[in-house]
Design goal:
alpha/beta; Rossmann fold; 9 helices; 9-stranded mixed beta sheet
């Protein structure tokens, strides 16, 4: 049976490809994420050139924004269509090569190598590919991951964090009786349950989300807020 739009597993590559091909990608922002811009000076204002990892990156304009701040940007995306679109839409010249880490996959790189996107399954990505990162920007990866796979997801994220790194996480909070997910409800208690053993957790911001009714699941809810966390290893 074909997956319904509101019941896709994050590992269903064929499903994601169909969504990209049919342009059913309402999760994609056309502008840099609100929380990144709002907290830019506090988080990235020291001027140091660092490395950021973006799981499930799609064609996010956040990648170009980070690169323009001086970051080395590494993304992972299972579908090749949004990767090509990202470079072409932003008029960024790029190369395409095969790579043996994390597994045999295709890697797309800007000519200046400031942006590198691995076309592979997130769960196949390992530190052997690019080492560890100073920042991880997780706008939709954990929120789209089924609860049964969250521990596996977080275990991989932890291996990609350098000792002083910061994991920036967006979550959704809503009454899950009205929508089973995805994106899945991740209240603050769940965030602490998932990360509290290993990490220090700072809830930095939140914003009401129901005005984004173009995203279909919002229409089922009485309330929905997006929350922004900065998480660091203890």
């Amino acid at each position: 049976m074909e997956n319904d739009k509101n019941s896709y597993p994050v590992t269903d590559h064929a499903y994601w490809s169909r969504r990209w091909q049919s342009k059913e990608t309402q999760w994609q922002n056309k502008t840099v994420h609100y929380f990144l811009e709002k907290h830019q000076q506090e988080l990235f204002g020291d001027g140091k050139h660092r490395k950021v990892f973006i799981p499930f990156c799609g064609k996010s304009v956040d990648m170009k924004w980070f690169a323009e701040l001086g970051f080395k940007v590494v993304g992972v995306e299972v579908c090749d269509l949004p990767i090509k679109s990202f470079f072409e839409d932003n008029s960024i010249a790029y190369t395409v090569e095969k790579n043996d880490f994390p597994s045999t996959c295709t890697v797309y790189k800007s000519i200046d190598e400031s942006i590198c996107i691995y076309n592979c399954d997130f769960f196949d990505f390992t530190p052997e590919a690019e080492g560890q990162f100073d920042f991880i920007w997780d706008r939709g990866g954990l929120s789209a991951t089924e609860p049964d796979n969250r521990t596996k997801y977080i275990d991989l994220i932890l291996t990609l964090m350098s000792p002083d790194s910061m994991y920036l996480l967006e979550t959704f909070e809503y009454d899950s009786r009205h929508h089973p997910g995805p994106p899945y409800n991740l209240p603050v208690e769940s965030v602490h349950e998932l990360f509290g053993k290993y990490c220090k957790i700072c809830r930095k911001d939140e914003k009401e989300f129901l005005e984004n009714a173009r995203i279909g699941f919002c229409q089922k809810l009485d309330y929905c807020r997006i929350c922004f966390y900065a998480i660091q290893l203890k």
